[in-house]
Amino acid sequence: MKAKELKGMSAAELNAKIGELKSELFNLRFQHATNQLENPMRIVEIKKDIARAKTVLREVEQKRS
User: Fold this and answer.
1) Contacts of 3 (CB under 8 A, 6+ apart)
2) CB contact at 8 A, 46 and 57
3) Is residue 53 a contact partner of residue 17, using CB atoms and an 8 Å limit?
4) Which residue among 5, 14, 29, 47 is buried most deeply as judged by most CB within 10 Å?
5) What is the number of domains present in the chain?
6) What is the CATH number of the domain that holds 54?
7) Would you say the C-alpha torsion 42, 44, 46, 49 has a positive or negative sign?
8) Do 55 and 7 touch, CB atoms closer than 8 A?
9) Which of 15, 21, 26 is nearest to 58 (CA)?
10) Dihedrals φ, ψ of 8, to 5°?
């Protein structure tokens, strides 16, 4: 996910997206623990997407203040 895509979202949409990404990360970790994960790099990608979303959310909150 690109930061440009995230910057067009509202704070509520960003919070929802972060929640979706966290649940996906949980599922990937569970699959990894049971040796069912095909692409372990997907965990890294999801972590970076969560960080990007949190960064954009912080920027949106600072603009609002």
Assistant:
1) 52, 55, 56
2) no
3) yes
4) 14
5) 1
6) 1.10.287.310
7) negative
8) no
9) 15
10) -85, -5
> What are the pLDDT digits (tens) for 1-43?
788 999 999 999 999 999 999 999 999 999 999 999 999 999 9
Separation of alpha carbons 37 and 15, rounded Å: 26
> Domain span at residue 46?
3-64
Give pLDDT, residue 26: 98
pLDDT tens-place string over residues 44-56 = 999 999 999 999 9
What pTM was estimated for this model as a whole?
0.92
Residues in the chain: 65
39/55 Cα distance (integer angstroms): 26
Q: Is the pLDDT of residue 64 over 90?
A: no
Tokens of 56: 């954009």
